[in-house]
Amino acid sequence: MDSALSLKLNRYKQALASLELALKEEKSALARDSAIKRFEYTYELCWKNSKLFLREHFGVQVFSPKECFRELRKNGLVSDEETELLLIMTDNRNEIIYTYNEQFSTELCEMIKEKYFLLLTQIYKVLKNK
Questions:
Q1: What's the gap between Cα 61 and its chain centre?
Q2: Which pLDDT tens digit goes with each residue over 21-56?
Q3: 3-129 fold
Q4: pLDDT bucket at 99, cuts 50 / 70 / 90
């Protein structure tokens, strides 16, 4: 594995561990907001590592998260269902960054716990093991 990708994947792994810790905290507004912030930077590392992986392994240049996730599917790295969830996750990430809404924050935190953390972990494993 290329050393640049290896280094970036290590940061991704650390971000996942940090997110997991935040998700284990007792429920509170502070724990929710912490988990969301950690989700934001874990998400960024997910798509940027995926972008680098696609360039290095498939010669594919992508310029946005959604394009990146569609290319992962096109190259057989994720399923249709995972791709659909990645695209929804991207929309949720964009919404939380640009508009703060407490109800949405609570809903997003539950989605992170129930679905997104596992998906982000799965993408890490795909990138690490190829």
A1: 19
A2: 999 999 999 999 999 999 999 999 999 999 999 999
A3: Four Helix Bundle (Hemerythrin (Met), subunit A) (1.20.120)
A4: confident
From residue 69, alpha-carbon distances to 26, 56, 63, 89, 104 in Å are 32, 15, 11, 11, 24
Dihedral, CA of residue 99, residue 104, residue 108 and residue 110, to nearest 10: 160
Q: CA separation (Å) from 103 to 29, 40, 48, 107?
A: 11, 17, 29, 6
Identify the band that residue 130 occupies on the pLDDT scale cut at 50, 70 and 90.
confident
Whether the pTM exceeds 0.90: the reply is yes
End-to-end CA distance of the chain: 9
Question: What is the token pair recorded at 71?
Answer: 């290319």
State the Cα–Cα distance between residues 65 and 63, nearest whole angstrom: 7
Q: How many residues does the chain have?
A: 130
- Residue 14 gets the label, from left (phi > 0), alpha (psi -120 to 50) or beta, of alpha
> Are 36 and 96 spatial neighbours (Cβ–Cβ below 8 Å)?
yes
